[in-house]
Amino acid sequence: MVRAVTAGTGSRQHSGSPQGRYPAARPPSVAEGWSLTRLTAPSPLFGANGLRTGPDGRVYIAQVSGSQISALDLATGHLDIISPKGGDIVAPDDIAFDSDGNLYATEVMDGRVSLRDKAGCTRVLRDDVPSANGITFHRGRLFVGECREAGRLLELDLNGGEPRVLLENVPLPNAMEVGPDGLLYFPVMGANEIWRIDPDGGVPECVAGELGVPDAVKFDPDGNLVSTQVQTGQVLRIDPRSGDRTVLATLKPGLDNLAFAGGRLFVSNFTGAITEILPDGTTSAVLDGGLNWPLDLADGADGNLYIADGTYFYLLSGDGTPRTVGMLFAPGYPGFLRGVTAVSPGEFVVTTSNGEVARYRPGDRESDVVASGFDQLYGVTVAPSGAVVVAELGTGRVLSIGNDRVDVVASGLSEPVGVAITADGTCLVSEAGAGRVLGIGGTGTLLDGLQRPQGILVLDRHVYVVDAGAQELVRFDLDGGARHTIASDLPVGAPPGVIPKPLRGMPPFSGPQGPFAGIAAGPDGTLYVSADADGSILALRPMRPES
After folding, report:
1. Residue 114 reports pLDDT greater than 70
2. d(CA 36, CA 41)
3. Which sign does the torsion angle of CA 110, 111, 112, 113 carry?
């Protein structure tokens, strides 16, 4: 017997647009004797990156990790999906419009620049622009920047000819704009400066330095430069003539871009938050932020739940609000987090999408690389011997890392994702590509007939597996071999009817990115699941019989 669960239960509700990013066909349901609660509200977006006001007055929002572009109606708060997940545009990072209303998007992970015309047809303009990121259109000319360590500034030929190189060897240029003086302004993240250059060529000039890692620039109606600072969360107004600067607002770090619409200023955050900066310096939430994926989960030694969300590492507070304890660009952050396990108070072992295993102490803002050079690491656990065990999806291996050596525990696997250790020391691995859970070391197949098993957990004498393909949580009895479906129709994996396209990564920030519906257990036996499809955290609890 199963029991339907009303979507959206939990302590914290989304206060912005009612639309989510995941069109669930049915609410989750749980087996008799279980309850399900949402600890965080679903996310309306897959994060928020490039912003641009379109010719229709709506604010268009690029979402890298979700391969989606949405349009926000400022009057109604309504969100429309313009380019959907699984569509022709992959990992859009920034957008621009020409005078005819055609949309141009940089696809940072595929090194492409695409055009989506007013009829909704998309074609690739260039596919040889590594880390294509910042983009702007000015008087019939299209400019693009490569956000990499030795990036270029380019003018693309709209007729298909070779690009013209304005500048080379720029350390991480980002979202750009042509100013009232006709010069092209762009942030240089690697130098912590904002530069400008004549679009026809010449020597670049530094406009402002010693900032908070600027990642976007636009111009206000008075001709002042306005820039978001990813590390400090500041929104700065800078006089391009004198360099004088004013702090318009200080928000949560992770700001990515900005747009002016009818004289109003809006900024985006990696979390998906869209915030209006009002003239008096106050702010107004237009869209609430949320979790971008989320990925793996860990029950900390302090009894709190921790969430690996790629660019952020969160502690889930009692009121259901994720509290940031680490983020990309902050000191000591080991990189784009994927797998996580707690090893001692304040210390975690993590895997990153850059192929590293690290010990991370967020409270001290420190991390130490244990091993590196791997191909798409996912789940991580620690064996009783102290060795770190990881799943390496790219090579189909399970590895044991310890005492300055790496041992291959298993090889030839089909997309290994999750790992766990049983009480007797047996290593279990979920093979997403084979649809099974395998016991390594002679145990053989423990559980098969799954679709895409990902997160895996051993609790008492049971194994719990998140099957992202079937959207189920399955329990397997290690003693009797019984199998039970604990929950169904979970918001994990891809949305219905969507086949996601690979996210190839964006060096130096991350390697290939992919989903990972993780699972963890609290001290009281509560199961926590990463609902990566709708961006929420679920809690499943066995219900105690009434006395």
Report:
1. yes
2. 13
3. positive
Distances (CA, A) of 187 to 46, 164, 227, 235, 490: 24, 20, 8, 13, 41
Residues carrying CATH 2.120.10.30, the chain: 29-42+291-497+509-542
Residue 320 — pLDDT band, cuts 50, 70, 90?
confident
Amino acid letter, 501: K
Cα(250)–Cα(282) distance, rounded to whole angstroms? 10
Pairwise CA distance, residues 48 & 70, whole Å: 10
Q: Do 78 and 17 touch, CB atoms closer than 8 A?
A: yes
DSSP H or E stretch at residue 209:
strand 205-209
Q: What is the dihedral of CA 425, 430, 436, 441, to 10 degrees?
A: -30
Asked whether 135 and 166 are in contact (CB, 8 A), the reply is: no
**39-64 as b/e: b if 16+ CB within 10 A:** bbbbbbbbbbbbbbbbeeebbbbbbb
Tokens representing 222 are 């008075």
**Homologous superfamily of domain range 51-287:** YVTN repeat-like/Quinoprotein amine dehydrogenase (2.130.10.10)
Nearest residue to 237 (alpha-carbon basis) of 201, 267, 262: 267
Q: What is the pTM of this model?
A: 0.92
Q: Between the CA of residue 432 and those of 374, 435, 454, 455, what are the distances in Å?
A: 19, 5, 6, 10
* Res 20: pLDDT: 76
Cα Rg of the chain, angstroms:
24
More confident residue, 459 or 11: 459
Specify the pLDDT at position 457. 97
How large is the average pLDDT for residues 60-64? 97
Residue 1 has pLDDT above 70, yes or no: no
pLDDT digits (tens, 9 = 90+) for 175-207: 999 999 999 999 999 999 999 999 998 999 999
Question: Is CATH 2.120.10.30 what the domain over 29-42+291-497+509-542 is classified as, yes or no?
Answer: yes
Please report, for residues 306, 325, 333, 422, the alpha-carbon distance to residue 302 in angstroms, rounded to integers and kept in the order given: 10, 14, 20, 23
Q: Alpha-carbon distance 321 to 536, whole Å?
A: 11
Residues 532, 537, 541: CA angle, nearest 5 degrees: 125
Give me the pLDDT at residue 19, please: 57
Cα 97 from Cα 23, distance rounded (Å): 28
Check pLDDT > 60 for residue 8: no
CA 194 to the chain's CA centroid:
26
Query: Among the listed ranges 3-12, 88-97, 316-325, 534-543, which one has the minimum average pLDDT value?
Result: 3-12
Q: Within the chain, which residue ranges are assigned CATH 2.130.10.10?
A: 51-287
pLDDT over 90, % of the chain: 88
Instruction: State the Cα–Cα distance between residues 12 and 40, nearest whole angstrom.
Output: 6
